[in-house]
């Protein structure tokens, strides 16, 4: 890029972790230009071997670069148009990344490193910073920014006087506090303003429904739970919204009607059980801190509908293994035996669900064995290409999944299958994944307007007084 070409243009220097996080990031910078240091290509090559998500992304990024090189005509130093190819998504369709992109530039010459001699840190990061400083000297009129998912690299860039930013394109929300909760307390005047408005109530297949007109209806979503302030007024779940008119159904009280012996202890748990037991809801997401009952409620609903009602043929449970997405082959045994160390929560909750057995310790053990025979534990590593028919699928620790991984899992659902995602967005272990970019946050936001999906954020812990005190004070 010449000095003349750089005037008024933005040039983004990409770190390797951006490409390995999102290979399509090459096409996400609108009309601006991208610069790749040689060390980035070297790191992509070092990470391309393996079966992890990072390795797959490294290979995909390399394929995009190869296609761009194949479509290039002219001198590489003049840049390669990023409009030369259209990346394709998992379904084979062109990815909707827009048009009017800038150019891609590679480092084509070795520059003397202008960094301080004793700058700490690893060599690849320092090479990226050195190349960026050299670009700033060569192109003083360009607005040059380092883009990295590495916080320490961004701090070092700022110390050296360089502009550095995180990669925000995959961010679902600006703040996790804006995450859809699935519940809403109605304004105090909701019922008092109904005089002269459309107000109807009727029975349908044993259900009680209301139709109400109020401006707050514009803020509601399908299968969102609503209630009046205080103890007065009905508590319902939204079934249809048209303009300022909302139809909602009275919720079932699972505080008095147990599910597999489990009673809802608070409003949030009751809402969750209503979604889990509703045959018209194909996808449920439950978010909450430890001890709010996510796994216990889900297993109770799954066992009831599988063993008592025969609505589903079996229960499938899966979760991300730690280290995330890496091979679990070093553990002995079958797939389920390998997943055993990661499924302590399943065993703990089955003990609670079998407590009501009157046959003593032997009876409880027999009950546990029966339950485990109807629950299949699978690793995420072997989910690609599968289709689940008439299954109740539970995805635990879903906050550690990326949006791409979440899509891969949910698209495994066949006819008659219900999927439930459980997680706590405040406890993310996956590198470079945050509360606002988690796959769990992604699906909660994307499914909130679908009539066959529901979400509840559980806020009250019901584990023990010790756990409650620790959550609040530690």
UniProtKB/TrEMBL annotation:
**GO CC annotation:** cytosol
Is the ATP-binding keyword given for this protein?
Answer: yes
Q: Which domain of life is it from?
A: Bacteria
Keywords noted in UniProt: ATP-binding, Nucleotide-binding
The cross-references to Pfam families, in alphabetical order and at most eight, read: PhoH, PIN_4
Residue ranges of every copy of the PIN domain listed in the record: 10-155
Write one Gene Ontology MF term.
ATP binding
Regarding protein family, the annotation reads: Belongs to the PhoH family.
What is the designated name of this protein?
Answer: PhoH-like ATPase
Q: Which organism is it from?
A: Thiohalospira halophila DSM 15071
């Amino acid at each position: 890029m010449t000095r003349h070409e750089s005037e008024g243009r933005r040039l983004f220097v990409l770190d390797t972790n951006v490409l390995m996080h999102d290979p399509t990031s090459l096409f996400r910078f609108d009309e601006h230009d991208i610069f790749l240091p040689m060390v980035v290509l070297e790191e992509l090559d070092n990470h391309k071997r393996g079966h992890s998500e990072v390795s797959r992304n490294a290979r995909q990024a390399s394929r995009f670069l190869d296609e761009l090189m194949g479509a290039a005509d002219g001198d590489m130093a003049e840049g390669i148009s990023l409009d030369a190819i259209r990346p394709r998504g998992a379904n084979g369709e062109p990815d909707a990344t827009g048009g009017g992109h800038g150019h891609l530039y590679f480092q084509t010459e070795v520059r003397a490193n202008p960094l301080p001699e004793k700058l700490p840190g690893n060599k690849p990061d320092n090479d990226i910073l050195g190349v960026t400083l050299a670009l700033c000297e060569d192109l003083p009129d360009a607005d040059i920014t380092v883009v990295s998912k590495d916080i320490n690299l961004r701090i070092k860039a700022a110390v050296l006087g360089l502009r550095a930013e995180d990669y925000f394109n995959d961010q679902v929300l600006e703040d996790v506090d804006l995450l859809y909760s699935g519940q809403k307390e109605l304004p105090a005047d909701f019922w008092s303003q109904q005089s002269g408005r459309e107000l109807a109530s009727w029975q349908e297949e044993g259900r009680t429904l209301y139709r109400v007109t109020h401006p707050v209806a514009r803020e509601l979503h399908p299968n969102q739970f609503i209630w009046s302030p205080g103890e007065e007024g009905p508590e319902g779940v939204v079934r249809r919204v048209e303009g300022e008119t909302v139809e909602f159904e009275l919720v079932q009280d699972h505080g008095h009607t147990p599910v597999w012996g489990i009673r809802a202890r608070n409003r949030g748990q009751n809402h969750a059980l209503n979604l889990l037991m509703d045959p018209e809801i194909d996808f449920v997401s439950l978010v909450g801190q430890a001890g709010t009952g996510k796994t216990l409620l889900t297993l109770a609903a799954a066992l009831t509908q599988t063993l008592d009602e025969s609505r589903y043929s079996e229960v499938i449970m899966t979760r991300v293994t730690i280290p995330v997405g890496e091979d679990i082959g070093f553990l002995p045994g079958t797939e389920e035996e390998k997943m055993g160390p990661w499924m302590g929560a399943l065993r703990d909750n089955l003990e609670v669900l079998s407590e009501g057995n009157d046959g003593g310790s032997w009876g409880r053990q027999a009950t546990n064995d029966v339950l485990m025979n109807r629950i299949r534990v699978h690793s995420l590593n072997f989910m690609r290409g599968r289709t689940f028919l008439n299954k109740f699928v539970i995805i635990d620790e879903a906050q550690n999944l990326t949006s791409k991984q979440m899509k891969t899992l949910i698209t495994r659902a066949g006819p008659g299958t219900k999927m439930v995602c459980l997680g706590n967005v405040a406890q993310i272990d996956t590198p470079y994944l945050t509360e606002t970019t988690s796959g769990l946050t992604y699906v909660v936001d994307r499914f909130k307007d679908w009539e066959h999906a529901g979400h509840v954020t559980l806020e009250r812990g019901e584990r023990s007084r010790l756990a409650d005190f620790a959550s609040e004070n530690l």
